[in-house]
Design brief:
Elements: H1 2-25, H2 30-54
């Protein structure tokens, strides 16, 4: 259902944001963040862009 789809997208967004917040805030995670930054950014963007692609505009 659309509702389940939407909820999973919201949960993924929340998890992605939490993960990024944790990595940025923890000094020892900075290297890890920098290593995987492009990967995370791609995930983050796909998570934010996906709903507009799924939702019909007309």
């Amino acid at each position: 259902s659309k509702e389940c789809e939407f909820m999973s997208i919201v949960q993924i967004k929340a998890l992605a944001m939490m993960a990024i917040d944790l990595m940025v805030s923890e000094e020892n995670m900075k290297e890890v963040f920098e290593e995987h930054q492009s990967e995370l950014v791609r995930l983050y963007e796909s998570v934010w862009i996906a709903p507009t692609e799924v939702t019909p505009q007309q």
